[in-house]
Amino acid sequence: MNLDSIHLDILKELGNIGAGNAATSLSQLLNQRVDMSVPEVKLLKLRDAPYILGGPEIPVIGVTVLIEGDGEGQILLLFASDSAERLIRNIVAGFSPGDISNEIRDSVLLEVGNIVGSTFLNALSSFINLKLIPTVPASTYDMVGALIDNALAIEMAEDDIIIIIVTDFTVKGETIEGYMIFVPKPEFLSKIFNALGVSS
Questions:
Q1: Which domains does the chain have, with CATH numbers?
Q2: Fewer Cβ atoms within 10 A, N terminus or C terminus of the chain?
Q3: Which pLDDT tens digit goes with each residue over 19-44?
Q4: Cβ neighbours of residue 125 under 8 Å, at least 6 residues apart?
Q5: Cα gap 115→130, rounded to integer Å
C-alpha cells in the first residue's frame, strides 16, 4: 500500500472530526468542557502496536468496541494506567479518590470509549459511504501485549496494517494522552484505502 502524507492527513482529519464530535458529546454528558485533539496518526503492523505504549508488558486500561455492518474490525481505546486514573479523576471531580469505586471507573471509561468509538465511526462512515455499526463496548485491564493478542484472535495477522490515532483529552486544563487503535479487517482496510484513492 502506497500511502503518502496527503492520505495520512485525511485520516488525521477524520480523527479530528470524530474527536470534535466526541468532545461535544462528552461535554454535554459531563456538564463540563472536554477538549479532544488528534496530534498524530500512524500506520503500523499489528505486531508493532504494543511498542507505542512502551512495550507489550505495559499495563493499560482500555475499551474495546467491535465494528459490524459494511466493514468489520474493532476499535481499542487505550490509556496507560496513570493516564486513565487522571482522566477518571477529572471527569468525576467532586468525588474523593476513596469514593471512586471500580464500578464508577468502568462506567466512566465505557462511556468515553462508546462516545469516542461511535463518533469516529460516524465520521468514517460518512466519508467512505459505508454503514458501520459499533457494538456495546467492553472494558479491559491487562498488558497491552495481551490486548493485541486478543485483536489477533479476530482473524487478524501480525502483518496486517492498523491505524493508530493518538488522542489528547483535555479536562480542566489537564491534557491526558490516549491511543485509539483502529483495527479493520484487511478487506475493510482495502475499502477505506480505495475510498482514499490508494491501491491496496
A1: 5-193 (3.40.1550.10)
A2: N
A3: 888 888 878 877 778 888 888 888 88
A4: 131, 132
A5: 19
